[in-house]
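Page 47, continued from p. 46.
Same chain as before, 425 aa.
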Amino acid sequence: MALPAFQAKDLVMSYGHERVLKGVNLTVEQGAFVGIIGPNGAGKSTLLRILTGVLEPTAGKVQLLGRPVSGYDARDRARHMAVVPENPSVPFAFTVEELVLMGRTPYTSLLGGNDEYDGATARRAMVSTDTLHLASRPISNLSAGERQRAFLAQGLAQEPEVLVLDEPTVHLDLRQRMALFELLSCLNRDSGITVVTVLHDINIASQYCTRLALVDAGRIVAEGPPDEVLTREVLHDSFGVRVQVRPDPVTGRPVVTPIVHRQRPQLTGRVHVVCGGGCAEATLRDLVDAGLTVTCGVVNRGDADWEVARTLEVATVEGEPFSSIGDETLARNLRSMKAADVVVVEAVAFGHGNLRNLEAVEQAVRSGVPVVLVETEAIDERDFTGGKAGHSYDRVRKKARIITSRGALMDTVAELLGEETDGGE
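Result:
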């Protein structure tokens, strides 16, 4: 069994009286692509510097390929591990070729120069990083993306087993980020190089890394595959923001989207939303942002609106996926509606599974609860029950407020609550 690329045990790091790392344990297997993520000041870069032997921990141990990292001399360590630092600088106007050839230094004698093999290795590194055409250019004349690739080529010229990068996407645009991580992914997959990188871009980390380690307040609070680490609960606890986490439609990897809260007039009251299928994302967010107590249902677990409601901490009457609404669930939904000051019925499609939501709305109307129907689509375009939903909807419609644009929703809700807003969007 191959030895781990890195094995860190009980790492503690203190600067004066400030403890930056607090008992970190991390194992990086050979051939892994590991992203270290976390908020600013969490200890990510400190951890990376300890792993690479730049810093000596206050307590704890680090092994590189089965040996204490402190037991390697600089040349031996550079033969096994290449490090691409954040914002690397070169004090002299070296060309790209000269810079990349410096990656062969661990293999040359103190008095000897580069031989034919060194030159061929440097050229291969430049070809793989698309920098060969820049070979004669001074480093100082390169763009941020070109410079990043040049330093990566230098690291590859070391022929390392382990490649470590600290914030490699700093100053890179989206195209450059994608190109860099496509390259790293190919090196990891095709050459078996272990890649460890500190990243701020969570979605890049999710799409390319095989494992993630989330560092927060000097500890690793989550570690594993991206779909186990990038959950809304974990990210909210560490970053203090509400997010949606959904699978990428192509890769299936998690995609993290912050929930943007817009400044709105603060209202008081309780609103119940009938929704499903992802139609109510903006409505739920706007109502919550306005300070209202919001409930919704019946929404099946796993539904897109169910995910949004969970993210916004909206109390939800849940149903079973691919199941019709039962009597008990119907009764809970009706109680939630009758407790509301306003019921909003989104432009949701109705099938036999959620038809009883309209039954509950009819009973709420008879109980005197104000109802707002969002008609961005006609009901006959959303009725998949052979007309049953349409008939029930029409009975509700006779006593409901009708809006045909989402921009009018907040004003209508405020009016029914007896309050005023500064106008809809």
